[in-house]
Amino acid sequence: MLLVQAPVKETIELDHSIFLLKVHSPEITSIIKPGQFLNIRVTDKPYPLLRRPFSACDVDGKHLMLMFNVMGEGTSILAHKPKGAPVDILGPLGNGFNLDDDYDTAVVVGGGMGAAPFPFLQRELKGKKEILTFIGGRTHKDIITYGMENLHTATDDGSEGLKGNVIDLLNENLDVLKSKKIKIFACGPAPMFRGLKDFCHEHNVNCEVSTECAMACGFGLCQGCPIESAVDKGKYYLVCKDGPVFNINDVMI
Amino acid sequence: MLLVQAPVKETIELDHSIFLLKVHSPEITSIIKPGQFLNIRVTDKPYPLLRRPFSACDVDGKHLMLMFNVMGEGTSILAHKPKGAPVDILGPLGNGFNLDDDYDTAVVVGGGMGAAPFPFLQRELKGKKEILTFIGGRTHKDIITYGMENLHTATDDGSEGLKGNVIDLLNENLDVLKSKKIKIFACGPAPMFRGLKDFCHEHNVNCEVSTECAMACGFGLCQGCPIESAVDKGKYYLVCKDGPVFNINDVMI
Amino acid sequence: MSEVDLSVKIGSLELKNPVMLASGTVGYGNEISEFTDLNKLGGIVTKSLSLKPRKGNPPQRIVETPAGMLNAIGLANVGVEAFIKDKIPFLKQYDVPLICNIAASTVEEYVECVKILKDEEVIKAFEINVSCPNVNEGGLIFGNDVKSVARITELVRAETTKPLIIKLSPNVSKISDFAKAAKEGGADAVSAINTLVGTSFNIFTRKPKMHNITGGLSGPAIKPVALAQVLEISRSVDIPIIGIGGIMDWKDVVEFIIAGATAIQIGTLNFIDPSASGKIIKQLENYCLKMEFDKLTDLTASYNID
Amino acid sequence: MSEVDLSVKIGSLELKNPVMLASGTVGYGNEISEFTDLNKLGGIVTKSLSLKPRKGNPPQRIVETPAGMLNAIGLANVGVEAFIKDKIPFLKQYDVPLICNIAASTVEEYVECVKILKDEEVIKAFEINVSCPNVNEGGLIFGNDVKSVARITELVRAETTKPLIIKLSPNVSKISDFAKAAKEGGADAVSAINTLVGTSFNIFTRKPKMHNITGGLSGPAIKPVALAQVLEISRSVDIPIIGIGGIMDWKDVVEFIIAGATAIQIGTLNFIDPSASGKIIKQLENYCLKMEFDKLTDLTASYNID
Ligand SMILES: Cc1cc2nc3c(=O)[nH]c(=O)nc-3n(C[C@H](O)[C@H](O)[C@H](O)COP(=O)(O)OP(=O)(O)OC[C@H]3O[C@@H](n4cnc5c(N)ncnc54)[C@H](O)[C@@H]3O)c2cc1C
Ligand SMILES: Cc1cc2nc3c(=O)[nH]c(=O)nc-3n(C[C@H](O)[C@H](O)[C@H](O)COP(=O)(O)OP(=O)(O)OC[C@H]3O[C@@H](n4cnc5c(N)ncnc54)[C@H](O)[C@@H]3O)c2cc1C
Ligand SMILES: Cc1cc2nc3c(=O)[nH]c(=O)nc-3n(C[C@H](O)[C@H](O)[C@H](O)COP(=O)(O)O)c2cc1C
Ligand SMILES: Cc1cc2nc3c(=O)[nH]c(=O)nc-3n(C[C@H](O)[C@H](O)[C@H](O)COP(=O)(O)O)c2cc1C
Ligand code: FES
Ligand code: FES
Asked: What is the ipTM of this complex?
């Protein structure tokens, strides 16, 4: 866990209000793992006050990439940092995905910005495992293709790929999926997680999800980021320390 | 009194942290008078919250100029507005100088940033009255020369002009001043005003000063900007409405 | 003709919409009228008036703070007599409910002020300021004592049939006790909140920045506190609430109404954008359309709390 | 060897410097120790401990506000037993005064907690939280009642000779009454302030953003209020004050000390810059040099108020 000032190398606008921010930070890239995140202070002023958490989207040598949607004040300040400006990064934070257990094919499932952590994950798995990617969004504008291998897509409005959600997309490809020893790595909105939970249950698939919630510190100081255990009712994990990655059966989503 | 969005035409850094900001605002330039000021909202965010007051430094056709020192958050945001960016301006505000009464020579006295309102004043008087300018500062770095006619200078450290303050400078030039029918227009820090008050009293000179104080609204809503009457004790004028320009004998300074 | 009914009622007083301008932030209406069409507003509240004119506190009266500001004006005002003579004629030209805010140092003085003002038919309601933090005698000492709030309310109530609003202090343990007292005293509504007591020092001179030492904190910084106090009153006392504190845009207004406010007042925002209130009214209507409320009153205290 | 004496005393407890880390903002010290050398700090205060472990409130627990944040953690903590077993061993490694903050639902529970903890010699003082706004039973109900604050103080005092600090609630009319009660009850110091009660609503779902409905407001937004309450205590009660609320840098620390604080605590800032406290201590020393104070204590309550 480090606190660094990483200079902006490049900022690419992938699509209206979706940005890919590349910063130079060898200290972080040398230790970070897929599924971990960073908590970023976008200003030294009292507004916006809190750091903003972002998944490690990709790592390219000494360069760390973040992919984000401009939601409000924090992300818009971040999107407009000039080249060379220092970005105040706290990280790597959280547990990250477990890439090493027993499967042949990594099935990546992302909804909207939920695609963010997967370019890094795919880079790590390339050559080691087969990768199938399933990305869903409201319209074609929300479909992230950056760094995705064997990409299948679905949109609510049918403007790209299958008309439907990403769970429908998985069901479309059920035969392929059934024919392999898979593990699902997923990130996206709550409804997607709920659909996925049923899917995994029905087909009894091993699945890890990267969760989100409002955070203050990002590393265990504030107790502000609880997620309830699905096993032991009323017990809370901390998304920032125990997560953000959980087995889909372990948490209430 | 108007509320306008005036685009930045040009920003010139006169000296380390002293800026000249030129905005396009025909609505305001057509009605503003020397000694009036503008209250500027530097951001639409809740920090910094309040508008920032600045004297009209100069007017050039449809262009309004502000001269300011970067003191803190507000002025630094203002100094870094890119060309074309809208500046949220409330004004013209306040009373302004009375240029029309009975004198032949306008004696301009400015301490540090107190020089700000005088380029505009001199532009207006040019041709109509003789102008003598006396500018003081801590060092040569604080001496504003922009738009000043017949400039005499003094610095505390002697790095430019007379070694001493601006009152010493006036006394140096007493014979010239005595030989003319003068009116003093002054703006600067409180100690300068106090010295000037004695000077005007001793030589019984007519003098108007442009005052400053913390403000919230800038146009009479909040009652936040009192200055005590020197005539009628315990009576307060509002700097933003009754001022910022007062006869030096009318207010406690 | 608007598709959404934005009108609200404060006792017998009908307002076109819930957006009023807060006491002390628009003087007596003259200056702000250059930026906001007063006729479009729900109401306008005067600077606190006292029996005799008040010069207010010596400078410095204003200090900016993170997302807020401190003020220690000291109730500078023209006094009731001059208000009637010099200020009412201007306000008479507009078709906007005028609410007279009154501050005093003694219970009798409150009553006296109302006596003098009550027959001015342009005055549609009274807002009693029992909560000004910036004068030694007045306000706050009452504002922190449930009994005096009840007593002031009763005596003023006896004096006038016009709608009576008690403006409460947030600097108390349980604001709903004060709202109860106001209700029992016969008030038609309560306003919440006035400013929070705050201070600030110059770290080099080690002097307080404000001559009055302490001042009242207002602006976005206090919005969460104001909302909590409005909610607390709403959940425990059945009386119309005028929500005040840190409103910067229409979203904040909606938040106050959801939390229990029948109407709201815009304060500090007037200094920052004197044209804001007009925009907010329009945006409030858009929100109601989008959310399919045909009357704004359906939104009042509509919080989903299970 | 520093040229300025930054040390301060809280009762019999000597601190290297006035900078402590506030309860609930650094857990039990582990995580923050990666960014701040605990040995350099004036002190560290634990998350509020309760007799039994507490799971805390369901999500959402955190909401950001203008220059502030709301939290409704609900005193999630490991409980006194697990604290001794699992947390003290780590803290033992450091030469920093450990202050145990205790929260409870009953007077007896406060006493019980102290009984269990008092013989741990690594614990150098107790801070009694009578002011947590985020649990129905505990804290706030005591915090708003002068008599219970006096009573809790007396009973805990009877239990331990270690320095006793009472952490006061700002959600009261007159905080100095509570400081008096604490002093009379035998407390060595008071901490001020805890968070202000606040709330926030989602304007589309019309639900409170926090499951607990209300939360505690902290951060720069509350600094002016905290300073005013520290000043009020300082002017009316002779007891060491630990100033807390919205500290973001060394200037804020100086402001609190001028206003009457003997020591200060850094809270929300730890989330934003976990390395801040170390820098602040250094800058505090520079300020003293510049202002020619050879002892920081000369600055305490040094406000020029004529
Ligand atoms: C572990 C983790 C990883 C994330 N990774 C990414 C990513 O890779 N790309 C991306 O675009 N977004 C990601 N997010 C969401 C991202 O943090 C928010 O979109 C961002 O904080 C919004 O800030 P803002 O100031 O622009 O928006 P605002 O709406 O102004 O933020 C207001 C407040 O709400 C909080 N907030 C708003 N949305 C979220 C959210 N979804 N999760 C947590 N807090 C939120 C903000 O932190 C802030 O406190 C992640 C969140 C978490 C918890
Ligand atoms: C009528 C008038 C005319 C002015 N004209 C000029 C000018 O032409 N050029 C120029 O450089 N400055 C001028 N000033 C001062 C200028 O307004 C302040 O320097 C500016 O507000 C500082 O803002 P900041 O956020 O950068 O500094 P900060 O220190 O961050 O401001 C903090 C707070 O203090 C207030 N403040 C700080 N200094 C002053 C001051 N001297 N007067 C009033 N309020 C202050 C700010 O408004 C803000 O609320 C004028 C002030 C007044 C009242
Ligand atoms: C400069 C200033 C002066 C005020 N004067 C008064 C007053 O005279 N009477 C009163 O009842 N409230 C007064 N208030 C309080 C406001 O009416 C309002 O209750 C408070 O500012 C909170 O709202 P806001 O955050 O929107 O400003 C004043 C507020 C400010 C900022
Ligand atoms: C997330 C969070 C949790 C807190 N938990 C506690 C607590 O358990 N016990 C306590 O006495 N104070 C608690 N506090 C209050 C702080 O100790 C401090 O009094 C308050 O936050 C004001 O200081 P600040 O503005 O610097 O944060 C908590 C504050 C925050 C932000
Ligand atoms: S965000 Fe602070 S503990 Fe998780
Ligand atoms: S600044 Fe508001 S009245 Fe002068």
From this structure: 0.97
Give me the pLDDT at residue D2, please: 57
Closest-lying ligand to the alpha carbon of A56?
1
Ligand 6 pocket (Cβ < 6 Å) reads: B 215-218, 220-225, 238, 240
- Is the pTM for the entire model greater than 0.80? yes
Interval A117-140: pLDDT, tens: 999 999 999 999 999 999 999 999
Q: Could you tell me where the beta strands, DSSP code E, fall in chain C?
A: 8-10, 13-15, 19-21, 43-45, 62-65, 68-71, 98-102, 123-129, 164-167, 189-192, 196-199, 214-218, 241-244, 263-266
Mutate one of D271, D273, D277 to test the A interface: name it (highest A CB count within 10 A).
Answer: D271
Look up tokens 């920093």; give the residue: D96
In tens, the pLDDT along D137-185 reads 444 566 678 998 999 999 999 999 999 999 999 999 999 999 999 999 9
User: Mind telling me the catalytic residues of C?
Assistant: 132
Please give the distance, rounded to the nearest whole angstrom, from the Cα atom of residue A34 to the centre of ligand 1.
18
For residue B51, which of B38, B41, B65, B61 has the smallest C-alpha distance? B41
Contacts 24+ apart (CB under 8 A), A76-79: A77/A42, A77/A43, A77/A48, A78/A19, A78/A21, A78/A40, A78/A42, A78/A52, A79/A11, A79/A13, A79/A17, A79/A19, A79/A21
What is the atom index within ligand 3 of the atom nearest the CA of C127? Answer: 11
Q: Residue A15 belongs to what H/E stretch?
A: strand A2-15
Q: How far is D206 from chain C (nearest CA, A)?
A: 5
Determine the residue of chain C that is closest to B232 in CA distance: C55
Q: Pick the ligand that lies closest to the CA of residue C25.
A: 3
Chain D closest CA to C176's CA: distance in Å?
13
Distance from the first to the final alpha carbon of chain C: 37
Centroid of chain to Cα B187: 5
